[in-house]
Amino acid sequence: MQKALLIDPDKCTGCLQCELACSYEHEGVFNPSKSRIRVFTFHQEGRFVPYTCTQCAEAWCQQACPVDAITLNSETGAKDVNDSACVGCKVCTIACPFGTVNYNHSTGKVIKCDLCGGDPKCVSACPTQVIVYVDADQTGYEKMRQWAKQTDNSPAASA
Amino acid sequence: MSWTGKILRVNLTEGSVNAEPLNMDWAQQYLGQRGLASKYLVEETDPKCDPLGPDNKMIMATGPLTGTIAATGGRYSVVTKSPLTNCIACSNSGGFIGAEMKHAGWDMIIFEGKSPSPVYLYVEDDHAELVDASDIWGTSVWHTDEWLHNRYQDPLLRISAVGRSAESGCLYAGIINDLHRAAGRSGVGTVMASKNLKAVAVRGTLGVGNIKDPARFMQVVNENKAILAENSVTGQGLPTYGTQVLMNVINEIGALPTKNMQEVQFDGAHDISGEAMHEPRKSDGKPNLTTNAACFGCTIACGRISTIDKGHFTVENKAKYWGNSGGLEYEAAWALGADTEVNDLDALTYANFLCNEDGYDPITFGATVAAAMELYEMGVITDEQTGGVAFNFGSAEALAKAAEWVATGEGFGKELALGSKRLCEKYGHPELSLTVKGQEFPAYDPRGIQGIGLNYVTSNRGACHVRGYTVASEVLGVPVKTDPLETEGKPELVKAFQDATAAVDSSGLCLFTTFAWDMTNIALQLDAACEGDWTPEKLVELGERVWNMERQYNMQAGVTKADDTLPERLKSEAGAARTGPAKGRYSQVEKMLPEYYEKRGWNEDGVPTDETLNRLGL
Fold this sequence. Notes:
- The complex is a heterodimer.
- Chain A has one domain (about 5-150): Alpha-Beta Plaits (2-Layer Sandwich).
- Helix content of chain A is about 25%, strand content about 20%.
- Chain A is built from 6 helices and 8 strands.
- In chain A, the strands form 4 sheets. Chain A has a two-stranded antiparallel sheet with strand order 1-8.
- In chain A, a hairpin with a 6-residue loop joins β4 and β5 (about 80).
- The N and C termini of chain A lie far apart (about 40 Å).
- The mean pLDDT of chain A is about 95.
- Chain B is α+β, with helices and mostly antiparallel strands.
- Chain B has 25 helices and 17 strands.
- In chain B, α13 (about 360-375) packs parallel to α17 (about 420-425), α18 (about 450-460) crosses α24 and α21 crosses α22 (about 535-555).
- Chain B is globular and about 60 Å long.
- The chains are: A alpha+beta, B alpha+beta.
């Protein structure tokens, strides 16, 4: 089964565990500035929102890359960056409408979420289950279940 | 290795900024944060120095686990000599700037001297410079934060700053980081402002990549995260209610100091409790609490994010207070509320916002307002001082006014800004200042919880709950339940808590983990991350070393056995608790103190013996 990341910001506390797990997995360092997932704080609203690549089916980053460095990982569905091919031209960072592909100046390559090869570390690090890894074709399942629970069959409800 | 091995030394007099290597021998003996920074302070300054003079130093220090993925690994400490107590001060804060300092490659920043004009320190990895702060001097922490973010066009900049209270001489000004986290107690912000240092802005992109045994570290970190999640305090109580989970609990056992500590229970406790923060307000139907929030790397997330009803009298027509910001924690809610008998949750939240906006300690502030209220009701302080504001217990208006005055140092705020000791002395009633060594009590009454009273009198930074939180044992049963009204065994309990806390405060982790973790849990994480063999025994001994070093500093600064005492109100029959389970009780601190000295290896005057000092390598 192909899986996808699903993020529910309502439960996020802004702890950055996901950023630390991500940067450690990919760079061997605890360093939010090298994380592929970022948590945004909206202070006035009291909200924390993690955000990362959604692995578009027709990925702009992939189509824009002039050296075919971004390829589909057929096992995970992720669009992976092949470091040996990437020339650091950053065209993909412009093409991505969501800003989730970024340049890493210390390596001269771009970085983006690769779902950690099918075992995303942000998911296991998240203490509040804000980030979960679920059936890619059923990302709405839990939300449906929550709404289904609220369905009221009594006649009064339709009156 | 987990330390960066680098210190940034900032000489404000000369305007110089220099890197130097960390003393790694000291790191093995004092770890980081509180312990290591205190070692540097002790070595480099005269304990008799004027806290607000150029000879005092101020050290911002991370711990070896700061900036790592260890749960709660975001702490930093500010160590200096306190202008409030004239003792050593260590104020600890979470938020994000501690980790940012570490990610920029620095274990510590040492500030010395005094700048001829206002400056701030800007740090971006290896690059550090002092920059003219005349545009932000005289403005609040919140304004300074916004100004610096705009100035550098960098949303990821992390900022610690002092507010107008510190600049105008408030003796209990803190250093606020990330808008609403605070190195709050003992006037560390006052010291920072005395050096003409307005802010520290840090951006770190290097991260922490030198963990001793990364695979083992990740494994023990994950195991210990699971322990926090499964524990009822760290997994449920704190995330749901924050530290405010305690308000009703402590009130019920008759240990909630009320009305400048005249009483031990507050009728309005529920109105200002963690539970009440969840309830819809009558006025606008929204709860005070919006969400809980975490500091860097914290899987507990006890922080409160709150709003004030836009129609509340404190914020009418003041749109800048209509959004979310740091809400009430237990100590603040107690000092601003129970101790002043104000049961208006939004008024307390407003005062708390101002404490953050202009950087002053809500505990000492609230307790000082309570003392002023008692003096007002006695007719000693009158409308002449308060500018016509009726300063009665229970007055939300008086509390709000006082908060506004202290924020900027205007009017009666000038007197309130000196703390209750100086205020009560000035008006001829020193006995009404509820302090130890000049610092106000936190929210646990020593008449109803005997051990915490002994901790208060022996705490190296004056009255403080987080030097040795025996409430964990005496009330919550962690690690074992002891009777709060009993004195037997308490000297040993207090010592154990104090030593363990000093070690935790030196690690980079938050003390709140110890509701679920013991020293073994912490040692395992340190040992996987850091050079050296870190065992629970070594940690406890390190804590004891830190405690004795702080004690020595204080004695050299002029503290004597006579300072290890409680105000008469708390330790005499005349002041005995009048209601609740502790009715008729008063603190037996004098009975416990000699045994405490003995357990500590101190002589009968409370001086560490040579044998003790030698054993600890001091």
